[in-house]
Amino acid sequence: MTGKIRLVRFGAEHKNIVCQRPTPAMELRHFKNVTGNVMQDALNVWADLWKELEGQVVSGVMVMPEVENGFKPSCGWPEFLEKMWLLRHYLDFAGRFSQ
Question: Going by DSSP bridges, is the β-strand pair 57-58/16-20 parallel, antiparallel, or unpaired?
């Protein structure tokens, strides 16, 4: 649809302004930019979370002192870390796809 929209400017002149709806190419470019920014933000958050674990992870094995109230994922550390890596790859793919 390329229907016209009539906007009225308020002021001394009261001129009518006619503008057109954005083209599909413009809408696609906007979608791509927004999606790309959201995906980059998601990857940045993932990197921050991974950085928190990085000092405690060695070759895919969690090294932690025995703490009663420490965080322990219900699925276990190996599966949790695998899910973190999968999430990163999914986010990376979606980010590249949007570009």
Answer: unpaired
